[in-house]
Write a structure and sequence with these properties.
Largest sheet: 2 strands, antiparallel
Number of domains: 1
Structural class: mainly alpha
Strand content: under 5%
Helix content: over 70%
Distance between the termini: 43 Å
Strand order of the largest sheet: 1-2
Oligomer: single chain
Shape: elongated
Order of helices and strands: HHHHEEHH
Number of helices: 6
Number of strands: 2
Amino acid sequence: MTVAPAAPATGSRSRRTDALDAAGLVLRVGLAGVLGYAGWTKVVDLTGSVQNVLAYQLFGYEVSRAVGILLPVVELALAALLLLGLLTRAAAAATAVLMLVFVAGIISAWARGLSIDCGCFGTGGQVAPEETRYLAEILRDAGFLAVALWLSVRPRSLLSVDHHLQRRT
């Protein structure tokens, strides 16, 4: 009796890969949306963006001014790369670093007893002590960090320029 060779087990692996690629698309586009919204709200009010950075009391005026002006540009650039799925691993890694910096800044403000809004989505600055939401802001940014780390480890997703370029080679 002869046994026919087993067919490659591509069906379940292919479905799993397709599901992970679809999840990557959702995560990539979602993170791009968050960064795009955050960057846009700051770029349309650069004075407010600078004031938000100043509220953290970490840098002098000139450094805060540079950060306040450059941060929305960086956020918008990362959003565009993620939306397109271009250089996804690098964009996601840069986003992860950015989220770590944001979490560290919020923790620093909280530890030093500052009463500020994070300024993450354009509004920020001094608030009444009971209006601070440090824990919620940290948890939110930790969630974005987790998404960025996922995309850094597994950048492949549907409808990405990266995926299209890989298929052509």
